[in-house]
Sequence to fold (66 residues):
Amino acid sequence: MKLQGKVAVVTGSAANIGKATAVLFAKEGAKVVITTRSNVEAGVATADEINKSGGAAIFIQADLAL
Fold:
């Protein structure tokens, strides 16, 4: 596991490329922070998917735009 002991914050990770990145990071051992501005249901579902597959993830709703 290449990312064991690391924490990854993946912005826009409720769907599409961000979700795929978060899932891959989790599979490589990282603890993952899932963030999205508005797609809360999908963000929670992504974190749940990672946790159910043996990874570690939390969801935080956040607008990271300046």
Observations:
- DSSP finds two helices and three strands in the chain.
